[in-house]
Amino acid sequence: MQARLAHIWRHPIKGIGAEPLERVSLSPGRPLPLDRAWAVLEDGGESGPGWRSCRNFLRGAKGPSLMAITARVEGETIHLSHPDRPDLSIAPPHDADALFDWLRPIYPADRRPPAALVQSPPEGMSDAPFASVAILNLSSLRALSQKVGQPLDPRRFRGNLWLDGLAPWEEFDLVGKTLAIGDARLEIVEPIGRCRATEANPDTGRRDAATLQALEEGWGHTEFGVYATVQTGGDIALGDEATLA
User: Fold this and answer.
1) Which SS3 state, helix, strand or coil, does residue 105 take?
2) Bridge-partner residues for 179, per DSSP?
3) Of 45, 83, 231, 242, which one has the greatest count of Cβ atoms within 10 A?
């Protein structure tokens, strides 16, 4: 296989804000640094320690407008932007109330409101119950875009590493194999099951694409991308080759 690293994304607050990166250093058994480092627990959500299911948190499947939030980390501060809200800067966990006030106008009133801003455990708070890095395929995105009938922004899928140069859906053939990207080595674990968050346009926060229906009709499943775990840490950067280790 011949592929290169085309995009790097992290999401400092689970479901709330995507941030592009040019390079990052990965550590064994850990997610991307500051990816899902925080999460907004909904009222009535499970508040125990360790990893918790996505059903306990505010997220784009419940409030599609959240998908239009962008993020930028600067030291201890997270800067957030949304097309329908003034910019906000917070320093978790101290500014939780300010974050909740900022989110309320763009989160459905019939959903459970935010209750707490919680810090993720070392394994992170992705939708997988292990320290994961989400690897996605731009060729698969183009195939799905063609099926849907419109170009789909990569941000819909909350991936970490996007590869270009693979065949469509070739990422599923990598399960059980190890990828070398830059100085890092990542083992591909399993496909990623998708939810309605992917239906929302990250520019507007409004649902405008039947992504799950298109996946089901076109390929008989609702999976997109794969989860990986970092086996060997190291620096990775845009343009790095991705090869089988």
Assistant:
1) helix
2) 186, 244
3) 242
